[in-house]
Design brief:
alpha/beta; Rossmann fold; eight-stranded mixed β-sheet; five-stranded parallel β-sheet; 14 helices
Length: 406
C-alpha cells in the first residue's frame, strides 16, 4: 500500500542505533520515516560506527547525529534536550549488551543517557545471536524493560550474520515503522477497541481447478486494517487477499469461500470484547451466486462436450444474516451505475440494518486493484464525499466519520 507523505507529519522521532550489523536496516527505517513526513534525529553509540558512518544518517535526516564526541551544552545538541524533543524514541538495533545496560540503568554512553532521560515510550528492536537473545539473563533483562516504559518489537527467525539460522534477527523495517506509527497515532476512541474486517473476493469452487470469483483486490480492506492498527485498535482481518506490507501485529485470518468467511465472522463477533463497542467493516466482495454442485477432481472438456451449462444457486447474504445488535456495522458497496448508486446504497443501509455504508462508484474493471479510491460515507444522519486519494489516507478519513456512530 502507498504510505501517505503526511502520515507522520510534524512528529519528532529519535532513533538510537547500537553496535549490530543490523544497523544498515536503520538507514532504510530512517528513509521510510522521513518519507512519511516525520522529523528524525539519530543518536549513535561508539560501537555502531563500526558498521555505518554518522554521515550516512546526517545526509538522510539533515540533522547532526548525536554521539559521545560532539555533545554540546551551549545549544540543544545534548542528551537532555534531544530526549525532550522526541515524541517517540526507537532503539533499532538494540544489542544484548545495550539491553543489559538499559535494564540496569547504566548510562556509560550517549545512547544510554538519552534512554535514561526519556520519560515516554521507548520502542526496542533487538538484534542478537540466538543464544545471546535467549540467554536467561537477556530474557530477564527484556522482562524488566517491558515492565517499564519499553515496548518490545519482536525479533524474527532467519539466517543471522553468524551464518546460523535462528531467532534473533531484527524485525523488518516495515514492522518497526508500523509499530512507531501506532505509538504516535493511537487515540482514545480506537485504542483497545475490537475491530473485525472482511476483504478480498471470495472463491467459490466449480471443481478442484476452476472457481467463480470477481476482481476485488482486498487492498482497501488491508489499508483500513492498517489505519485501525495505527489508531490503536485490536484488528482482525478476515480476507482472501492481503497486502504484502501489512503490519504483522494485525491478526489475519486467511479464508477462501463465503462459508469460511461466515464461520469466522460469527466466531470473532462472539468473542469481541464489549468494554468498547466493537466495529465490523464489511469490505469483502462475496459471490452472489455459487455452484449448486461442486465437482471433485477436474471436469474434462471431452466429457462436457461443445457446451457447458453451469447451474448456480443464490449464495447466503453474509451481511444480512449476521447478528449485528451488539456491534457497529459498516458495509462497503461498489457500483457502476452512477445514476442509481446512492439510492442503492441507501437501500442497503436500511434493508441490512447497517450503521453506515461506504459507496464506491467504479468506472470499469480497471478500477479494481488501484492504490487510489473515492468513497462517499453514508449514514442515517449524514453523507460525506471524500475526494480520490490513496486508500490508506482515505481510510483515516473514513475512521474519523465512523467515530460518531458509536
Amino acid at each position: 500500500m502507498i504510505i501517505p507523505v503526511d502520515l507522520l507529519k510534524d512528529k519528532n522521532i529519535l532513533l538510537g542505533v547500537s553496535g549490530s550489523i543490523a544497523v544498515y536496516k536503520s538507514l532504510e527505517l530512517t528513509r521510510l520515516l522521513l518519507k512519511a513526513g516525520a522529523n528524525v534525529k539519530v543518536v549513535m553509540s561508539k560501537a555502531s560506527k563500526k558498521f555505518v558512518t554518522a554521515l550516512s544518517f546526517e545526509t538522510l535526516t539533515s540533522n547532526k547525529v548525536l554521539d559521545d564526541l560532539n555533545e554540546s551544552w551551549v545549544n540543544n545538541h545534548n542528551h537532555i534536550q534531544t530526549s525532550q524533543w522526541a515524541d517517540v524514541f526507537i532503539i533499532a538495533p538494540a544489542t544484548a549488551n545495550t539491553i543489559a545496560k538499559l535494564s540496569n540503568a547504566v548510562a556509560d554512553n550517549i545512547l544510554l543517557q538519552c534512554a535514561l532521560a526519556y520519560p515516554k515510550t521507548i520502542l526496542l528492536a533487538p538484534s542478537a545471536n540466538t543464544n545471546m537473545l535467549h540467554s536467561p539473563i537477556t530474557q530477564k533483562n527484556l522482562k524488566i524493560l517491558t515492565n517499564t516504559n519499553y515496548k518490545l518489537i519482536q525479533t524474527q527467525t532467519k539466517e543471522l550474520a553468524c551464518k546460523t539460522v535462528g531467532d534473533g534477527a531484527m524485525a523488518e523495517v516495515i514492522d518497526i515503522f508500523w509499530a512507531t506509527s501506532r505509538e504516535l497515532l493511537k487515540n482514545k476512541f480506537w485504542t483497545n477497541r475490537d475491530i473485525i474486517l472482511t476483504g478480498g473476493a471470495t472463491i467459490e469452487k466449480i471443481d478442484d481447478v476452476r472457481y467463480i470469483s470477481n476482481f476485488s483486490s482486498g487492498k482497501m480492506a488491508s489499508s483500513l486494517a492498517t489505519a485501525l492498527y495505527c489508531m490503536g485498535a485490536n484488528v482482525t482481518l478476515i480476507a482472501t487477499k492481503f497486502e504484502d506490507n501489512l503490519a504483522k501485529s494485525i491478526r489475519t485470518i486467511d479464508v477462501e469461500n463465503s462459508q469460511e468467511m461466515m464461520k469466522n465472522l460469527i466466531h470473532f463477533i462472539s468473542i469481541s470484547k464489549q468494554e468498547k463497542k466493537p466495529y465490523l467493516f464489511m469490505l469483502a466482495a462475496v459471490s452472489d451466486y455459487v455452484p449448486k454442485l461442486v465437482q471433485k477432481g477436474k471436469l474434462k472438456k471431452e466429457q462436457l462436450g461443445d457446451t457447458f451449462e453451469l447451474s448456480l444457486k443464490k449464495n447466503i447474504d453474509i451481511l444480512d444474516s449476521l447478528d449485528k445488535k451488539n456491534i457497529i456495522s459498516i458495509g462497503f458497496k461498489a457500483e457502476m451505475d452512477a445514476i442509481n448508486a446512492k439510492t442503492n446504497a441507501q437501500k442497503m443501509l436500511k434493508n441490512k440494518k447497517l450503521d453506515a455504508v461506504c459507496l464506491n462508484i467504479l468506472k470499469d474493471s480497471s478500477s479494481f486493484g488501484s492504490q487510489m479510491n473515492q468513497i462517499e460515507f453514508i449514514s442515517k444522519t449524514k453523507e460525506v464525499l471524500f475526494p480520490q486519494t490513496t486508500k490508506l489516507a482515505l481510510s483515516f478519513k473514513i475512521l474519523a466519520q465512523s467515530e460518531s456512530l458509536s
